[in-house]
Amino acid sequence: MEKVLDILVSGVHDAKNQLFFAESVIASAEAEHSIALGEARYAIEAAANRLSVALSAYRLLRHGAALAITPTIVGDLCTEVALAQRSHLAGNGIALDIDCRVVDEWALDRDLVADMLNNAIQNAGRFARGGVRLSAAQAGEWLVLSVEDDGPGFSALPPRRGTGLLVAGRLAGLHARKTRHGSLHLSNGGALGGACFTLRLP
Predict the structure, then answer these.
(1) In angstroms, how far is the first alpha carbon of the chain from the final one?
(2) What is the residue extent of each domain of the chain?
(3) Residue 160 has pLDDT above 90, yes or no
(4) Using CA atoms, how far apart are residues 90 and 77, in angstroms rounded to an integer?
């Protein structure tokens, strides 16, 4: 079984590299022919980045590698995610609102957490009617990061619960401090009335 997994991972790695190559070819075509292919480049780059993180998650979950925990300014993390997602959402008529109430640093795996938030926002954007909100707050000894939308919610759309969310929950749990472990919660009826993705980190 492990050999089969290694073969699959090798294939994922090759596919990721091909996607990055395709993105560079499209970027060159845009420049040469003065055509706008931003959405195509976004989709390819997002897919390639997801594969990159999937490979990192595989190494963490299978081989027990350590998270790359570093002190991270939460406001900067939220800004970075917003920059990556706002233009694409706006192109689909979705407004992205940021509400970061954490001014201090927090120890976390920045790349993995950013990917979880990016993925949650992309998912929310597919079902939102007009708005998505990314928020950050401190609740006691926990950092609470939430992505909410004004769509119909999770219960109305079972396909929103997938393998990505299962992996995100496992990765959240790897964030630990003393006896506390991170967790992922899905609910309905958030501030915007739709689905709410909540990541709690110790």
Answers:
(1) 34
(2) 2-63, 69-201
(3) no
(4) 20
CA distance 166 to 116: 11
The pTM of the full predicted model, rounded to 2 decimals, is: 0.74
Residue 36 per-residue DSSP state:
-
**How does pLDDT run across 95-109, given as a tens digit for each residue?**
999 999 998 899 999
Reading the block at residue 158, the tokens are: 């079972």
Taking the C-alpha atoms of residue 106 and residue 122, their distance in angstroms, rounded to an integer, is 24
Q: How many CB atoms lie within 10 A of CB 156?
A: 12
Predicted local confidence at residue 57, as pLDDT: 66
Element (H, E) at 143: strand 142-149
What gap in Å lies between CA 43 and CA 190, rounded to an integer? 28
d(CA 63, CA 81): 28
Helices marked H in 102-202? 110-127, 163-174
Q: Which fold has domain 69-201?
A: Heat Shock Protein 90 (3.30.565)
Residue 174 C-alpha from the chain's centroid? 16
Side-chain half-sphere CA neighbours of 27 within 13 A: 11
30/42 Cα distance (integer angstroms):
13
Per residue in 61-82, pLDDT (tens digit) is 665 667 889 999 999 999 999 9
> Which pLDDT does position 1 carry in this prediction?
47
Alpha helices for the chain (secondary structure H): 2-33, 38-63, 74-91, 110-127, 163-174
